[in-house]
Amino acid sequence: MLEQLDQIEKDALAALETVKDSAALSAWKSAHIGRSSPLSVFLGDLGKLPAEERPQAGKRGNEIKRALESAFGTREASLQASELERSLQSDKLDISLPGRPAKRGRLHPSSQVLRKIYSVWADMGFQIYRSRNVESDEYNFTLLNIPPHHPARDMWDTFYTTDPKVLLRTHTSPGQIHAMREFAPEPVRVILPGMCFRYEQITARSEIQFHQVEGLAVGPGITFANLKATLSDFARRMWGENVGARFRADHFPFTEPSLELDIECFVCGGKGCPVCKYGGWLEILGAGMVHPTVLRNGGYDPKVFSGFAFGMGPERISMLRHGIEDIRNFWANDLRFLEQF
Ligand SMILES: [Zn+2]
User: Fold this and answer.
1) Model pLDDT for residues 147-174, shown as the tens digit of each residue
2) Ligand 1 centre and the CA of 196: distance in Å?
3) pLDDT of 238-256, one tens digit each?
4) How far apart are CA 219 and CA 299, in angstroms?
5) N or C: which end of the chain has fewer CB within 10 A?
6) How far, in Å, is the centroid of ligand 1 from the Cα of 264?
């Protein structure tokens, strides 16, 4: 009886030696440890043995069962490993083939100037404040001290919508009111970049859309000297430590007093050239002390708070920098132009 068991084990192990692939392994499994294998049949018939032989036969039978299962596991693992190895060898990837290079884009010249402007103002403690492109008449004009009858409204040819009170903003200044109303009575120090829209004849000098970067600082005790120092510092950080700057009086409805900032021509160093029209200076931005009416509209008491605001055009700065003569190039999507920057 025990010899019969030994023979079953010997036959099974010998058969396992000849197994070469997983199909043969699965056939071996059902033949030698499956439900109708000689071992299972033997264990199923234990009850037919004489009572004194049963314990020993059962013990030996189960030992063999465990041994065969473990031999099966070992064989299965080694077959899987060699099959994986074979597939890696036969399906090798050729990684020496050169790839197809991805076509790299670049930043639009306006984005390049905008990022430079952002980083300079960020270094000086100004946050970027985003505001909307579609504005109400009230924010775009009235709250900025440009009432309906004011002659300054003629300066902005405006895109109106079907609702006469809703328009595309003509400048980034309405963002000043949004920022002040959000932060008052706390101090504000922000720049407001964005696209502006004017209903104009498109020529080499004027477009219907362009960027502006507005700036606003409001707090107790801000003076005209702070404005001049801040703008001079901006000019040095933007155009170099030794750039000359000068201020000229100007007029805007939302600032009082108002000024223009010129910098020394960076092409000729102030000697005179076609870029500066032989004047030696380039007009860079408009600025001024925030008008008391505008402060009040923003939620600040002009007896306690004061502030300054400024605005500049990145496309104009880019045109001066690169000698671009036609503003229409910026939005014409012509790669011959864009790939130069
Ligand atoms: Zn010049």
Assistant:
1) 888 877 777 788 888 998 899 999 999 9
2) 28
3) 988 988 999 999 999 999 9
4) 12
5) N
6) 8
